[in-house]
Every structure is written in structure tokens, then in C-alpha cells.
Design a protein that fits this description.
- By secondary structure, this protein is an alpha/beta fold.
- It is about 35% helix and about 15% strand.
- The chain has helices at about 5-15, 20-25, 40, 55-65, 80-90, 105-110, 120-125, 130, 140-145, 160-170, 200-215, 230-235, 250-260, 290, 305, 315-330, and strands spanning about 15-20, 30-35, 50, 70-75, 95-100, 150-155, 175, 220, 240-245, 265-270, 275-280, 340-345, 350-355.
- Helix 11 links the parallel strand 7 (about 175) and strand 8 (about 220).
- Helix 1 (about 5-15) crosses helix 5 (about 80-90), helix 10 runs parallel beside helix 11 and helix 10 crosses helix 16.
- The chain is elongated, with a radius of gyration of 25 Å.
- The structure holds zinc ion.
- Zinc ion binds near residues 286, 287 and 364.
Length: about 400
């Protein structure tokens, strides 16, 4: 029967080892993988390390280390667990794996750079436990959400469910732009607000609802008109924008500004019994103007105030927007980039349309010059797909 010492010796014979000095020299072009336990990791780590406890290595490697040919440096506390881990990764087909001798202890003792990682506290671990169970989210993903910033345009029908779910999911900073007051006629669909807050500023009402739901969330309010003069300042620093506006001028303005700042926009719209969602990811997919180069003439744009909307519908569309925002933040799955999801509540059907980036797009096309401009107030419920850009 083989002893621990025999197994370690055998593992080390099969792998390559480097000392911390050599590892540090490769810092910029290698991925450091920390295979210690959580309580060890919490005490300190090498900056930028991917944390995969030894016991989860086989199950999480594929997801957390997708490139099997990328150079990987594995470390533990003293260099033994990392030797076994290096052997495992080699067996899984990773081609450039080394184990760091002496581990984190020696790295630290030699005065090399280390940091204390941000970790979830026990309350957060409980609150987000259903996220932590998902390998695609996990501790690192939840930490990422807590450090993320999402801007919501509008605290209305779409913004309400989107904001509630993003807050519940633990997105750390939610910005909300809205300059209206809560009206009783909003409450048929705008579930952020309630009877007690009729007459209050919508952003204040939203902040109360979201903070009561999750105190982890920092709600930043913008009780202003969103215009060409302030849009770049407002959207600056946000990771994703959830567009719940109901008018063309703001959509075009937002499109152009988000291209300038390269911030993805999760677009949603609703009309009577129908809704649409898509993701405009600047220069990685179509933008709003690729679908609809210019606003339609006013006579062709029905008034949204007159059209009406079924109460539950924005809950469905706004929730999908929140989901797409989280996917973008975590970089998981297939976001609705280059796809438009159309929902018909009466038929109870979802349909996917391909939407393509237009090489001649006036905003994101080659050589296009973006000029932020205000448009006349027009109102149309949906982006109309031109013949060339729509396909099943
Ligand atoms: Zn475009």
C-alpha cells in the first residue's frame, strides 16, 4: 500500500515545480490558481488568483479555467496540495501547469505582493446561498455582483421588477434615473411603489423599497431629466444599463452615449400585450440604430400614453432584462446580443429574431461619428425591424 509520502513523491515526479521567485517573474502572463481551503484563502492571497479548493478542482476546473493551453501556476500553503493539483490538471488535459514550491507561506515570507480578498460575511453567505450553490455564480460570482454597478433608466413598469430582482440578487450599486412622482395610476404595474408613497419622488420611493429588500445595495438616485448635457456624466462608471424608458428621444440618446462609453444596454419595451427585449453590446453586436437608424415620423408613432399596457407584462419583460444584466455581469450563458426576444402575452409565445449589426450604421458603423443630440418628443412602443435586419 502506498503512503502519503509515496503518493506525493510520485505526483512530484510527474509535474514541474518552480519557486516563488520564478513564479513572480511569470506573474503577468500566467494564471495563479489557489487550491487551499476557504479559511486559508480568506487570510490572504496572491492578487488575481483563481480560487478553487483542492476538493473542487476536478468539478470546477473546466468552468473557471476554460483555456487548457494557458500557463497556470498552482499554489497551496506549502507546495504539497498544489503538487497533487498540478497532476490532476495535467490529467485533465491542461498543457502548461506548474506547482509553486513553498506555497503561499514562502511567497509571503519572501515579501512578495499579497492581498486580503473580499469575502462574503456569514449573513451574505446565507442570503445568497442559492447563488453559491450554482458553480456559474459561486462565491466569486456573488462577489462580482456585489462589486457591480447597474444603471436603471426609469423606475416605472420595466424598472420596477428589474430593480427589485437586481437588488435581491445582490448587485452592489443600483443607479436609478427618474424625474417623476409616484401616481396612483402607476401602481397597476410599477411594483416598486405603493399607496403610502403616492406623491413622493419616484427615485426616493424606489430607494426605500430596494434598501428594505437588501441593505447590501447602494442605491444612487438621479432625480433629473436625462439629456444630452448630463448623460455621459450619469452613465460613466456603470457596468450595464437597463433601459426601461418609453420614448424615442431617450433611446437614441442612450444608444449614442452608451456607444461612446462602451457600456452594454439591456433594452426592453412594452406595448399593450406585447414586449421585446434585446441586448445592445457596443461594437460586439447591433446597436439601437442598426435596428432603427432614425426615429419614425411622428404621424407613424402612436402615443404610448393612449395605447395602454397589461399590468403583469412589464413584470415579465423587466425580469428578463434583470436576468440579461446579471448574465452580462457574470459573463455566463448567451446574452440576447444580436437577438431580439418578442413576447406575446395573449398567445403566450416567445419568439427569437436575429438582428445584425449594420456595417453602415450611422452610430456604430465604420467611420461613424457620434454626435449627442436631443430629438423631438416622439413616442413609439417598439423598435420596428427593417426588412433587411429581421430574420427568424
Ligand atoms: Zn449600430
Amino acid at each position: 500500500m502506498a503512503s502519503y509520502r509515496d503518493l506525493l513523491k510520485a505526483a512530484k515526479a510527474d509535474i514541474r515545480e518552480i519557486d516563488p521567485e520564478a513564479a513572480e517573474a511569470r506573474f503577468d502572463d500566467s494564471t495563479f490558481v489557489d487550491v487551499r481551503e476557504l479559511d486559508e484563502f480568506e487570510q490572504g492571497m496572491i492578487p488575481g488568483s483563481v480560487f478553487i479548493p483542492r476538493g473542487h478542482l476536478e468539478s470546477q476546473a473546466e468552468h473557471k479555467l476554460p483555456d487548457r493551453d494557458a500557463p497556470i501556476i498552482i499554489y497551496c500553503a506549502a507546495g504539497n496540495r498544489s503538487a497533487f493539483a498540478a497532476k490532476t490538471l495535467q490529467d485533465l488535459g491542461y498543457s502548461d501547469v506548474v506547482s509553486m514550491t513553498g506555497g503561499f507561506g514562502r511567497w509571503k515570507n519572501e515579501g512578495r505582493n499579497w492581498i486580503t480578498p473580499a469575502v462574503l460575511d456569514p449573513e451574505q453567505r446565507n442570503r445568497y446561498s442559492r447563488h453559491l450553490l450554482l458553480p456559474e455564480v459561486g462565491e466569486a460570482g456573488q462577489q462580482k455582483l456585489l462589486e457591480s454597478k447597474v444603471l436603471l433608466l426609469g423606475a416605472g413598469g420595466l424598472g420596477s421588477p428589474a430593480a427589485l430582482y437586481l437588488a435581491a440578487a445582490g448587485v452592489g450599486t443600483l443607479g436609478i434615473v427618474d424625474m417623476d412622482v409616484v401616481d396612483a395610476s402607476n401602481l397597476q404595474r410599477q411594483i416598486l411603489h405603493n399607496m403610502e408613497r403616492v406623491g413622493e419622488r419616484k427615485v426616493d420611493s424606489a430607494k426605500k423599497a430596494l434598501t428594505a429588500l437588501n441593505p447590501d445595495v447602494d442605491v444612487v438616485t438621479y432625480d433629473v431629466r436625462f439629456g444630452a448635457d448630463n448623460i455621459l456624466d450619469i452613465i460613466d462608471g456603470y457596468d450595464v444599463i437597463v433601459d426601461g424608458t418609453d420614448n424615442f428621444p431617450t433611446r437614441y440618446l442612450l444608444n449614442d452615449a452608451s456607444l461612446m462609453k462602451r457600456i452594454p444596454v439591456v433594452h426592453g419595451s412594452i406595448f399593450r400585450f406585447e414586449g421585446q427585449v434585446t441586448v445592445f453590446d457596443p461594437y460586439n453586436g447591433p446597436c439601437y440604430r442598426c435596428l432603427l437608424p432614425e426615429p419614425p415620423p411622428p404621424e407613424l408613432a402612436p402615443s404610448c400614453a393612449e395605447a395602454g399596457v397589461l399590468g403583469v407584462l412589464p413584470g415579465i419583460i423587466g425580469s428578463i432584462q434583470a436576468l440579461e444584466a446579471i448574465k452580462l455581469l457574470l459573463d455566463i450563458g448567451e446574452p440576447l446580443r444580436g437577438r431580439l426576444l418578442a413576447y406575446d402575452a395573449l398567445e403566450e409565445t416567445f419568439r427569437n429574431f436575429k438582428v445584425r449589426r449594420d456595417p453602415n450604421c450611422p452610430a456604430c458603423g465604420e467611420g461613424a461619428q457620434i454626435v449627442l443630440a436631443e430629438y423631438d418628443a416622439l413616442c413609439l412602443p417598439h423598435a420596428v425591424l427593417s426588412d433587411g435586419s429581421a430574420a427568424h
